[in-house]
Amino acid sequence: MFNAIVINKDEAGYRAALTQLDDTALPEGDVTVRVAYSTLNYKDGLAITGRSPVVRRFPMVPGIDLAGTVEASSHPGWQVGQAVVLNGWGVGEGHWGGLAQRARLKGDWLVPLPEAFTPAQAMAIGTAGYTAMLCVMALERHGVTPERGEVVVTGAAGGVGSVAVALLSRLGYTVAAVTGRPQEADYLRTLGAQTILDRAEMAAPGKPLGKERWAGGIDTVGSHTLANVCAQTRYRGAVAACGLAGGMDLPATVAPFILRGVTLTGVDSVMCPHAERLQAWQRLARDLDVHLLASMTREIGLAEALDVAPALLAGQVRGRVVVDVNR
User: Are residues 23 and 137 located together in one domain of the fold?
Assistant: First the structure.
């Protein structure tokens, strides 16, 4: 038997609860993992609360991340005892996820846990940090170097934003952090932000083409915020878009793209190819100051995830939420 958060939808309605399950309930897969830690991401919050239809079949164990140890494997790439990490691949949406003490998965979805991190630290990074690294890599591919000028990060006090600020600062970039929580200014400065901007400055409708401010940007918000970041990006700069906390719309014009040669590059962490995942985790092991993880992380027990999920969606949670599934 093992503990798991299980979401059901039936005549009684939509509900998520801590449940005990038998191993025979596990879905198909060629690797069984004893989970040590998971996380609570924005998508997990949507799944647990039912606020958005991210869960595609029921019953479902949410949790788009996990770190643990292989317990059984018929996959040629994995042996019993190996430490592994999983991010995305539709886990927690269409396939049972990490908010449980056991998971059965496709071995092709797993990557080895970098030696630089403990399982808890890997989940302090999680999909949010891995996505932040993909965004940094995207900016690098488009020629955004520290010498080019300031880089802006929106939603900076959230999970992706916090790690993005820390990574960019460690790599030598000058970072402007946008947040709707002015009380987090000192926290963002400890991560390496040099300028703190009020979210209201970026969230209102703006001009089709603004004053050139940013060499590049990492946007987790979407809507008017992303439109303003693009409109204020310098000639031949680039913006990596990876989130929609402010909305799915993009009320922008083509002006930044055809007059300044700005690149808007989308970053998807869910179905990202395996080779790029490995590269991102290798870069995280090299480029992220592991000592900053404690300042951006809150650890909770499995049952607590049910109560923290609504607060996460309300923007009341700073940084990352790590879930110890064994307490």
Answer: no
| Distances 117 to 14, 37, 160, 242, 297 between C-alpha atoms, Å | 37, 13, 18, 24, 14
What is the spatial distance between Cα 59 and Cα 281, in angstroms, rounded to a whole number? 31
Per the domain annotation, does 20 fall within a domain? yes
What is the domain extent for residue 188? 127-266
* Together in a domain, 242 and 167: yes
Q: pLDDT tens across 30-43, in order?
A: 999 999 999 999 99
Contact 242, 135 (CB under 8 A): yes
Count of residues for the chain?
A: 327
Q: In this structure, what are the phi and psi dihedrals at residue 111, rounded to the nearest 5 degrees?
A: -130, 155
| Sign of the dihedral through C-alpha 286, 295, 302, 132 | negative
Q: Are residues 227 and 304 in the same domain?
A: no
Q: How far is CA 54 from CA 71, 94, 134, 153, in A?
A: 29, 9, 22, 26
64 vs 46: CA distance, rounded Å: 12
Q: Same domain for 100 and 139?
A: no
Q: What is the pLDDT of residues 79-92, one digit of tens each?
A: 999 999 999 999 99
Task: Check whether 49 has a pLDDT greater than 90.
Answer: yes
Q: Has residue 283 been placed in a domain?
A: no
Model pTM? Answer: 0.93
Are 21 and 61 in the same domain? yes
CA distance 42 to 39: 10
